Amino acid sequence: MKSMASMKTLLRLLGAGVLTTVAATSVVACGPNNPGTAMEAKVSENFGFTDNKGVSTVETKVVVTTDVASWSSTQLTGITADKLLTTGGNTADKAVSVDAGDFLVNVFKLTVVAGTGADRTFNHADATPIIMSVKTWSPTIAKKGTDDYAVNGGTAVVQFKKGTDQLGVDYTLNILAKPNDGIIQSLLPATAGITLSNFNPIANFAAGKPKTGITVGQDLVSNFKVDATPGKGIKSIVDLIKQGALAVKVTKVNAAKPNFANMDTLKVKISIGTITFATEYTLTLV
User: Fold this and answer.
1) Using the 8-state DSSP alphabet, how is residue 175 labeled?
2) Mean of pLDDT values over 205-226
């Protein structure tokens, strides 16, 4: 009886171990980024996503359009399947490589007009409606010294569609690391681009109030209008890059007398996370 009880205990422990292993595997399989498939090396080169050594050529930057920030890449814009063909507009175009021809046939389901292997030809008009788009961006962001952020690699997942039908699988492309190229400072307003009008009333910055009511380092972000240009666009950048909170901190208090009067000023700078950007803005009391 004792032997039977010991066997049951062992089986129970083994069973628990198996269940634990299965659960752990499931968690790994459901990772947050769920990357696509790596594209064939020669096809990636033919599209211009990598060089002939397999190194990524995909440069990525932040753009702001109508106060909405997004990722963008020249190398991933306007890509259609005819990029894999040698010339434009013909009914008998060869593929730029044998691998490109295989991709056109196997993934894009293009019909070979004539020939075999490297001599296969395709109808150019069959390729142009097949359009690539970026499905997800996952750039790696790092600090560029103490004055900006930079893209330090990462990935983008792309897909090809003809109309609403996806052709092939999702493909993961590497993003080129550019650690010395800032991506945010150039998007911020110039010196005159932020004024007191871009803030809701600042209680202690008013005529007759003691200038001691505003201190260097004070964060005025709660007064900054993030529902209108330019604050809305700046907030959108913060949300996109996810490097920390937005702050608008006082760098100087300029008042000739103990109490604020018209034409006195505050100087402020914008921060995102631990990076404070160089441009200083003047808020003039009127």
Assistant:
1) P
2) 98
